[in-house]
Amino acid sequence: MSIGTLPKGFWVIATELAFWDLGAQGLMNVGLLFTSATRASFFAQLSVVITPLLACLAGQSVPSATWCGCIVALAGMLLLGADGAEPGGGASASLLSGFNLGDLLCCGAALAWSAYIFRLTTISRLQMPSVMLQAAKTSLLAVFYLAWVLVEWLLVRECALADLWPGWASPLAWGILLFSAVGPGALGDCWMQQASDRVSPTTANIVLSTEPLFAALFGGIFLGERLGSLGLLGGACIFCAAMVAGVADQGTDNDDVEHAEKASVGQA
Questions:
Q1: What one-character DSSP code corresponds to residue 186?
Q2: How confident is the model at residue 93 (pLDDT cuts 50, 70, 90)?
Q3: Is residue 199 within 8 Å of 207, Cβ to Cβ?
Q4: Is residue 238 a contact partner of residue 213, using CB atoms and an 8 Å limit?
Q5: Does residue 241 surpass a pLDDT of 60?
């Protein structure tokens, strides 16, 4: 498919996806300047609960089992966040006391990420070319980030451009950026676009909440990190939540197919 034969509304949709992606990543990055990584990871996973709320507001049916999966996944994220907390402080107290600007920004990131997943799943029904859509979104996102850099450089910092990134000459830094762009960036976006054709936004968000499990795995392999008892329990909760949501989503799909078949028989 060439640029001249793109579906109607292609660039509007790509711009919307880039906007939500910018909100999810940008708000999280800025939020980490004002809050801890533990608190940020917890608030970011509020998207597990926000996504079904968006689906309900859009008039979509959310199975009760999926709601249970959301609650279990959120509990799992809380346990993972509390894993390794300082003794005597209390996980709930450390997470809920002193709500600050960074926490608000991370909640905004969770909202933007939920909107991105929800809209991506909705847009998939329009039969947009997934690879070209993600390429267009990423290109527009690069333009948005360039505008951010220019504003930060010329209007906020008013400094030399190299001062915005002290490690710009490091080959390791460029290698990490290249891996991030090709792996989690390009491949992740395309795979997620393909998956959105087969699962609901709520299920997609719960399955994506297994991300800390992979982070823990790679942390154990490369950094020697180990999950404690709370982390292991949290990981089990997230895994169970993903399974429950997947089964509920499959059941909903089967019901839709059955209703469609009955309707077609009735019309015949």
A1: I
A2: low
A3: yes
A4: yes
A5: yes
Structure confidence at residue 257 (pLDDT): 40
Residue-range definition of the domain harbouring residue 119: 8-127+199-262
Report whether 133 contacts 17 (CB < 8 A): yes
Residue-wise DSSP of 67-110? HHHHHHHHHHHHHHHHTTPPTTT-HHHHHHSS--HHHHHHHHHH
- Is 187 a member of any domain? no
List Cα–Cα distances, 260 to 66, 124, 148, 149, 257, in angstroms.
22, 20, 48, 51, 5
pLDDT digits 0-9 by tens, 96-117:
555 678 878 988 998 998 898 8
Domain count, the chain: 1
Output the pTM of the full model.
0.68
19 CB neighbour count, 10 Å cutoff: 18
The answer as to whether 237 is a domain residue is yes
For the chain, the farthest-separated pair of C-alpha atoms sits apart, in whole angstroms, at 72
Altogether, the residues listed in the chain come to a count of 268
In a domain, 51, yes or no: yes
Amino acid of residue 28: M
The secondary structure of the chain in percent helix, strand, coil, rounded to multiples of 5, reads: 80, 0, 20
Domain membership flag for residue 170: no
pLDDT at 119 over 80: yes
pLDDT in tens, 148-196: 889 988 888 888 877 888 778 889 888 988 888 887 777 777 777 677 6
d(CA 30, CA 145): 13
